[in-house]
Amino acid sequence: MDPDPELMPHPHIPSFLQEIVDATKDLVCAYKPNLAFFEALGAGGMQTLLEGLRSVPAHIPVIADAKRGDIGNTARFYAKALFQHYKFDAATVNPYGGRDAVQPFLDYADRGVFVWCRSSNPGAADLQDLRLDDGGCVYEAVARRAREWNEHGNVGLVMGATWPEQLERVREICPDLPLLVPGVGSQQGELEAAVQSAMDERGEGFLINVSRGVLYAGSGDGYAAAARKAAQKLRGRINLMREAVLARR
Question: What is the spatial distance between Cα 17 and Cα 3, in angstroms, rounded to a whole number?
């Protein structure tokens, strides 16, 4: 749910998002707005987001892609804003500050906390693949920490689809944590490898995130229908791949 005015078929963001939701709500497991797109709109940006999400059914969770992370006292207010004021069902967090920077989010036991572990961008390796004294990488250490932090059963990990080997490694470290997998589509993450690497033993436990590939699948008056077609096709491909992997096990 990342509205880019340069790509949108018309300029009214709330109605654009509402029509996308109406066209896809029977196909998706969650919606994930990246807050940057709304903060960039100025003082009314978050109100625009809330209006755009108005048609999301109550049973479908909304994940705030915020990647918040700060010292504990500040993180407490970030968590309060996202979970109490805006009432998001889950949020992404940055673990760079350690446990006390994430703990205020973890304390909301009924909300999901997706820890940013191995991102999909090309420069992720600059820090996330650095080797530690034990021979492992930074992203592997983050995965282990997240597993330890999962005391309320509400922790997941953000793992980029563009790096299937790292994705598979994190699934080995955290066999039961849900994985939020961005990077399929415009970032050219390979879908089949991502599904195979991310799924748990039951063929579940992952959320494939696609933004631009669905939002801007079409232009003009048919954009909502095009978004539905793109989402439907993607969902079908994911399920076929899941079934194929499970059949081989």
Answer: 8
